[in-house]
Amino acid sequence: MGKSLLDKVWDAHSVRELPSGPTQLFIGLHLIHEVTSPQAFASIRDMGAAVRFPARTFATVDHIIPTDSQARPLSDPLAEAILVELEKNCAEHDITFFDLPSRKQGIVHVVGPELGLTQPGMTIACGDSHTSTHGAFGSVAFGIGTSQVRDVLATQCLAMARPGVRRIEVNGKLGGGVYAKDVILDIIRRLGVKGGIGFAYEYAGSAIEAMSLEERMTVCNMSIEGGARAGYVNPDDTTFEYLRGREYAPSGEAWERAVTWWRGIASDSDAEYADRVEIPAESIAPTVTWGINPGQSAGVDEPLPRVDDLPIDERASADEALRFMGLHGGEPLLGTRIDVAFIGSCTNGRISDLREAARVARTGRVASHVRALVVPGSHEVARQAEAEGLPEVFREAGFQWREPGCSMCLAMNPDKLAGRELCASSSNRNFKGRQGSPTGRTLLMSPAMVAAAAVKGEVSDVREVL
Amino acid sequence: MSGSEPRLRVEGRACVLRGDDIDTDRIIPARFMRVVTFDGLGEHLFEDDRSQAKGDHPIDDERFAGAEILIVGRNFGCGSSREHAPQALMRRGFHAFVGASFAEIFFGNCVSLGLPCATLSEAALAEVMDSVELEPTQEIVLDVASRTLTHRGGTIPVEIPDGAHTQLVEGTWNATAVLLEAGEAIDATAARLPYVQGF
Question: A259 in a domain, yes or no?
Fold first, then answer.
C-alpha cells in the first residue's frame, strides 16, 4: 500500500512519539499575527525560554488593522497597543515582521503564499483556524491556539494526534459562474460542519486539478468550517508554476531539487484512505448560506428547507437559524434584499477573486441602498489590482476600495455591520454576530455573487449577469 | 518547569447550556479580543447571546451560579482557533466541559489549559442535562482518572480520548515542557528536512 501526502509529511516531521500518544511534530513554517501571539510571547518570557528557530517564524498584522487609514498611530488605541506589542515581540526575538512600511503586509494566509513561504511538504501552523488555506500547496497546515503558539515559539514543535485522511474527489467540469467557493460550500453542506472532525481532507479529482492555486486556497481555507483541521491538494505543475520566482521560493539549482522532493511528497496512487467521497462537479450550483453555520446553504435558486422536512436532529438548529436570519423555509434566497456587500478575506481576497468581482462590477452600479466594500487581501494584491485598473472599476461602480486586512470578515477593526443589516459576504463564517453587530446577518457566497448582489441590491444569480 | 499539575477530578455545581454548534464567536465575540492578555475575558463570556436573551441565559441563571462544569450539546466550540474562548470560560469559573461532541481545536486548547472535555452518548447527555436542570444545587463529579461522571442519577462512564486523558492525569498537559525534553532530536529532525536546509 502506498502512502498519502499527509502520512509522508507526518513521518518526515515526526521528532518522536510522545508517551501520552500524540506525535511530537516539527513545524516547518510558523506564521503569527497580532491577536493570538502576545500572550504566547508573555508566556515564554515568564518561562525564561528563547524562540528556538526565529528564522522559521514570520509575522504580519491583519485582524485589527483599519482599512480606511493605516497611518500610525492607528486611530483605535487598543489596536495601536496590540500592533506595538507585536513590533516589540518581533524585534526582541529576531522575527521577520511584514509590517505596514514593508508594503508586504496583508492577511497572513494571503501573504505566506504570495511570498513563496508556503511550500509543498511543509508542516505549517498559525494561531488562526484558516491556516488550512496553505494546504493548497500540498502542505499540512492547521490552526492552533495561543498555548500552542507558545509551544512552537519555544520548541518549533507541536504535540499532535495524526488525523485520518478523507479523500474528496470533485470530478467533471464546473459550470459557468460556479467558483471554488461554491465547491467548498457544497462540500460542507454535504458532509456537515462536524463531518470532518478527526480528518484531514484531501481534495482531488479533475475539477480540483483544473483549479488555479488561488482557487485551491479558497477550497482548503474553509476545511475547518467542515470540522477538518487541515485540508490539502497534492502538489502538481500548477503548484510549481505558482511558486517559481517568488521571494522565498528556492531558485537556481535548488529549484530543481525542490521540485523533485515536492513531487515525491504527493500521495501515492495506491494510498489508503480512511474515507472517500465523490462529488460530480456538474451538480454544484452558485451556493449561498441561509443560516448561522457554513453548512446551512442552498443553491441560489433552490427553495430553503422547511424545518419539518429536515432530519429530527437538524430541526432545532435550522429553526433557530431561520428565525435569526428572518428567512422562510420553502422560499429561495434569490431576490432577498441586502444592505451590505463585502468582498475580501483570506477565503476570497486574492487577485483572481477581485478580477471576477470586477467583471460583474462592470455590468452596473451598486444599488443605492447598498454599502459595498472591496478589501484586498494584501498590499501585493492591491498593487496588482492597481496595475490592472481594478480600483477604478470598483469605484466607478460605487464600491469602496479599501486598504488590506481581515476587515468585515470578523470585524475586529471599525468595519462592522450595524443592527440587523444583511450582508452578502465573500468571507468564511456566518456565525451570529460574526460581522460585528450581535444581530447582524451574513450570507456567504462567491465574490462574483457578492458583486452581483451589490449591483442588483438583492441576492442574484451571477450566471444571469455574466 | 513542568507548569502543570495532574487534573484528576473536577467537582462542583454544573450549568446546562443547550444547543448545538455553539461557536467561539458566540463564546467570546471578536471585539473583546483586542487585548494583549487574557485577563478580564470572563466578563464578556457569551456577551452577545446574553444581552439578546435579556437575562434569560444559563450563564445569568441564579440557579447555576458558581458552576464549575459546563454541560453542552454537539460540536461545542466550533469555528475560530481563538484560545480566548476556553480562557474566557475558565476565567468565568468553568474547569470542565461535558457534552455530545467538541470541535477539535477547542478540545486541544482546553487540554493545553488542563481543562477536561468529556463526551457521552446523546441519551446519557439528555439525562444529565435534565437531572441538573431539575436540581441545580447538586454536586457533580467528573472523575477524569476513572472517566466517570457522577450526578444525582448515578455514576456513568464518559469518554476522554487516551492521549488527553494521559496528559490530564499525569499533569503533562502543558506541552511546552514535554516538547522541550526532546532536546537535540528536534534539531536532528530539522536537519533531515530538505527545505530547512535550503534544498
Answer: no
Residues A324 and A451 reside in one and the same domain: yes
- Tell me what the mean pLDDT of segment B167-189 comes to: 95
pLDDT for A19 equals: 87
Look at residue B3 in the predicted model and tell me its pLDDT. Answer: 58
In a domain, A251, yes or no: no
**Where residue B4 falls among pLDDT bands split at 50, 70, 90?**
confident
Q: What is the mean pLDDT of chain B?
A: 96
Mean pLDDT over all residues of chain A?
A: 97
pLDDT at B141: 98
Q: How many structural domains does chain A have?
A: 3
Average pLDDT of the segment spanning A394-404: 98
Assess whether pLDDT exceeds 50 at residue B194: yes
Closest in B19, B82, B104 to A36, CB measured? B82
- Is A366 part of the contact surface with chain B (CB cutoff 8 Å)? no
Question: Which amino acid would we find at residue A195?
Answer: G
Domain stop point among A105, A130, A160? A160
Q: What is the pLDDT of residue A102?
A: 97
Looking at the structure, do residues A272 and A295 belong to the same domain, yes or no? no
pLDDT at A299 over 80: yes
- Whether residues A316 and A350 share a domain: the answer is yes
Nearest Cβ partner for B172 among A20, A38, A320? A20
Question: What mean pLDDT comes out for the span A142-163?
Answer: 97
Q: Is residue A248 part of a domain?
A: no
Residues A350 and A379 in one domain: yes
Tens of pLDDT, residues A54-74: 999 999 999 999 999 999 999
Question: Would you state the pLDDT for residue B182?
Answer: 97
Domains of chain B in start order, with CATH, are: 9-192 (3.20.19.10)
Q: Say yes or no to pLDDT of A32 above 60.
A: yes
Confidence class for position A313, pLDDT limits 50, 70, 90: confident
Same domain, A298 and A272: no
Does A105 lie in the same domain as A46?
A: yes
- Distance, in angstroms, between B13 CA and closest chain A CA? 27
- Quote the minimal CA–CA distance from B190 to chain A in Å: 7
Does the residue A419 lie in any domain?
A: yes
Beta-carbon contacts of A77 under 8 Å, excluding residues fewer than 6 positions away, are: none
Q: What is the pLDDT of residue B1?
A: 38
Do A170 and A154 fall within a single domain?
A: no
Same-domain check for residues A154 and A188:
no
pLDDT band at A466 (very low <50, low <70, confident <90, very high): confident
- Among the candidates A133, A160, A187, a domain finishes at A160
Q: Domain range for residue A108? A: 5-160
Size of interface A-B (CB pairs under 8 A): 212
Check if B176 contacts A (Cβ < 8 Å): yes
CATH of the domain at A19: 3.30.499.10
CB contact under 8 A, B80 and A436: no
